[in-house]
TrEMBL record:
The gene is recJ. This is Single-stranded-DNA-specific exonuclease RecJ. GO terms for molecular function: 5'-3' exonuclease activity; nucleic acid binding. One of its GO terms (biological process) is DNA recombination. Keywords: Coiled coil, Exonuclease, Hydrolase, Nuclease. It comes from the Bacteria. Residues 336-430 form the DHHA1 domain. Residues 52-210 form the DDH domain. InterPro entries: DDH_dom (IPR001667), DHH_sf (IPR038763), DHHA1_dom (IPR003156), RecJ (IPR004610), RecJ_OB (IPR041122), SSDNA_exonuclease_RecJ (IPR051673).
Amino acid sequence: MPSVLQRVYANRGINHVDELDLSVKGLLHFNQLTDCEKAAERIGQAIIAGESICICGDFDADGATSVALLMSFFRSINHSKAFYLVPNRFSDGYGLSPTLAQYAHTEGANLLITVDNGISSHAGVSKANDLGMQVIITDHHLPSTELPDAFAVVNPNRRDCAFASKQLAGVGVAFYLLLALRAWFKQQQANHAVASLKIAEYLDLVALGTVADVVPLDYNNRILVRQGLARIREGVCRPGITALLAVARREASKITASDLGFSVGPRINAAGRLDDIQQGIECLLAQDLPSAQILALRLDELNQQRRKIETTMQEEAQACLARLQVDEQELPLVLTVFDDQFHQGVIGIVAGRLKEQFYRPVMVFAEADDGTLKGSCRSVAGVHIRDLLEQVASEFPDVISKFGGHAMAAGLSVPKSQWAAFNRAVQQVAERWVDADTLARVLWSDGELQANEFNLDVAGALQQAGPWGQSFPQPMFDGTFKIIQEKWLKDVHLKLVVQPFGSNETFDAIAFNVPRASWQWNSPAQANLVFKLDVNEFRGQRNVQLLIEHVQA
């Protein structure tokens, strides 16, 4: 292992070589998940009895992969009485609602399984119970003080759950449910198809949903992602993922976790944000490549449309801030933005972009069909946004009608009449909850590279190591460089040729989507760069390339 990679791993808390073994034998056992075996037994009984099972999903990539995972499973064992429902983002709201429970009952469901939602669906679970259905909740979002009155609640973030990895995505919880279900059949019905289920076949979906949901990549999640990536690289994955990689122009045999997060995930999310997540689910469920390709092209079109809307909304958000006459030097601790022209489907994206620009928790709101204001929140490290919302709701019970989420992202609804009161309440709580030092933007570097470390072997080793992601970031370095050549591409991308001090070699370096005014330097041309070491492949040639994250002239 290159010494630089040893340093990178040490910087991320890896203390022993065993922690680099990402084989499936390192996975935590499903029996540590509270209610997992109880839920598996109930599903097993439903399969044997031929009961009708409804899967209630969510309208993002984690929810879509979770639904696809369970539906693929039921289809593989020919359980024809399984179907799925996903609420419409615009008309139904989030999670298992009473309306959705009623519809599932109308469709004949005996058992209802939520995936990537349900932990806050008290009313929906009560309605299902009243209708004679039993509910199994599989979720990973933070629960409130009381759990819904479901038959089983499988969630690593339950207060009474001993599962060591609290960072499982919704699709990870669904995967663990399958592990427990297979074990139950091995004990009770050893000749049944489920007892010999090849659960590794679902790891491509688990990797995609885990990366797309931006959950922290702890050891357990890194195993799930590494194993899923290995299957995709080997071409042993479902046609839908193959087709989505193709429309994103990503070579499956060479993909990394970031390709799932920045290329595949957004195309699935675009369906949920602008149209119907069912298109994303059906793409993942496609049985052959031609069918998957048609759906992937539609998802690609939606993603392009989403980008256009996002650009417009960014401009609108900036205009809104200008109308509010916010001084960037005196921004509020939590930035709240509403404009009646905002589109519900992309307020999360806008919140994320504003968070990056101003580096503080951001809440962006659009008007919902029911007259309330629907908000999407994005936060920074050190500010648990879901807990902050709970504190606001506790102290000011009238200003939030519902909310849910986790540390870095959350959603909520605010009565329109309470908008001003909500803003005052948020700032009052933020004064106690948000330390100004937390809002100082910090770039963490893995240090400087030696001149002999700017080579393809090191760059390739860094690229294939990991997998990198949330809380286990891709290696980033810093150093002083001579600027040999510079040019702007489309006026937004900065292309450089740089030379490390102490070296005679030069390398291409590029910074994507940067403000031109902020990236200037005086002669003699040199700059301190923060960068990622990358491998650029073009026309069969492989060269070291620096991906610039920050420049200090």
